[in-house]
Amino acid sequence: MSLTELHLALLAGAPRHGYDIKQEHDAWFPDSRPLPFGQVYATLARLQRDGLAEVVETRVDGGPERTVYALTAEGEQRLRTWLAEPAPPTGTGAEEIVRKTIAALHTGIDVQGYVARQRTAHLRRMRELGQVPAGAGPAERLVREHLVAHLDADLRWLDLATDLLRTPSPRPTPERTSS
Amino acid sequence: MTSSALTLSGVSHSYGRTQALRDVSLSVAPGEVVAVTGPSGCGKSTLLLIAAGVLRAQSGRVTVAGTDLSGADDTARALVRRRSVGLVLQFGQLVPDLPVLDNVALPLLLEGHPPADARAAAAGWLDRVGLAVGPATLPAELSGGQTQLAAAARALVHGPALLLADEPTASLDTRSGRALLELMVSTTVAAGGSVLLVTHDNTVAARADREVRLRDGVIEHEVALS
């Protein structure tokens, strides 16, 4: 499940507390279901347990106590490993591709390399799907065409990501952690 | 050692101040299908025209089917193009005053084949691409998609060693486009020929053995798909 790695990406710019991570996630993926606070805190606890994140500060500024987390070196390595691998070119359920692309764009970790690898993975899958076995009926051909159409849509979207890279808008400042 | 069907070495080309290709090197092996992709204006059509010998590269070397086009005069380049290359351009580019049948027969007629034989072969290819025309039908009577079918038939009629196609299915619906692409690729490769497809259509690129992606006139990445 890539939510773990996505949390690592959300922590990559600067140390953040749970509330900030939730806000940042919902800003990155405005069309997704908002991240529940419970899930954020559970994930952060797991990251800490696994040595991928660490507590760097506990703030009590008159309000509720806020624990600020930062990536460990191991956490950053795990994030880089995640972004080094293209998402499975499944044709449907493209959520993972969106997550990886957006995380790569926000963190700036080898974005061009990621997009190129994802493109290749998709084209290879499309090529396989185009090799229709002899004797395949219209139903099997249609299923294949459905997958090809979805993969093609992903690739067009990735092209937009590439264009964005060429005319970059200012990156969101990592210093958005509120005190 | 088998020589390449097409080799470009350090090819550069400009239109005025606009540099279309910068130091591009590319090789296509016999029987290989290569897709050149990239955004509009990346130089991919220029690359195809240079490979076809239609444009002369301003620097670098171009070899097609064992012949170095770089130093060749216009006549020699035209000869290579006629004998070894099948060329499908985006809008068909048929000769307007010639009937479609003669357009398709042209590569054979220019090589001195008897007209009746050349026209019979042309009619056979028109049938294979699925285009029904009369002997006097002119290009102006065809739709954009039909023009592309005729252009493909003309490119295939002489069994080229190198098929070069620029957006060959752009004017066709999905099903007809797939069928034409498959016909072009499979017949050329089955005869030991090679195919270079220039396209921004991912479904066309996915038919290739290798993708060469251009951006701003340089190769951005090159990767095997098979």
Output the keywords.
heterodimer, A: 179 residues, mainly alpha, Arc Repressor Mutant, subunit A, 2 domains, 3-stranded antiparallel sheet, 7 helices, 3 strands, disordered C terminus, B: 226 residues, alpha/beta, Rossmann fold, 6-stranded mixed sheet, 4-stranded antiparallel sheet, globular, PadR family transcriptional regulator (chain A), WH_DNA-bd_sf (chain A), Tscrpt_reg_PadR_N (chain A), WH-like_DNA-bd_sf (chain A), nucleotide-binding (chain B)
Q: How would you characterize this protein structure?
A:
The complex is a heterodimer of chains A (179) and B (226). Chain A has 179 residues and is mainly alpha-helical. Chain A has two domains: 1-79, Winged helix-like DNA-binding domain superfamily/Winged helix DNA-binding domain (Arc Repressor Mutant, subunit A), CATH 1.10.10; 85-169. Chain A is built from seven helices and three strands, in the order αβααββαααα. Chain A has helices at residues 3-12, 18-28, 37-49, 73-84, 95-107, 111-130, 138-166, and strands at 16-17, 53-59, 66-71. A three-stranded antiparallel sheet of chain A has the order 1-3-2. In chain A, β2 (53-59) and β3 (66-71) form a beta hairpin. In chain A, α2 crosses α3 and α6 packs antiparallel against α7 (138-166). In chain A, 28% of the residues are buried. The model of chain A is unreliable at 175-179 (pLDDT under 50). With 226 residues, chain B is α/β, with parallel strands linked by helices. Chain B has one domain (6-224): 3-Layer(aba) Sandwich (Rossmann fold), CATH 3.40.50. Chain B has helices at residues 44-51, 74-84, 100-110, 115-129, 144-156, 174-190, 202-205, and strands spanning 6-15, 18-28, 33-37, 59-64, 67-68, 85-88, 162-166, 194-198, 210-215, 218-224. A six-stranded mixed sheet of chain B has the order 6-7-8-3-9-10, sandwiched between helices. A four-stranded antiparallel sheet of chain B has the order 2-1-4-5, covered by helices on one side. In chain B, α3 packs across α4, α3 (100-110) packs parallel to α5 (144-156) and α4 packs across α5. The chains are: A mainly alpha (179), B alpha/beta (226). Chains A and B meet through α6 and α7 of A and α7 and β10 of B.
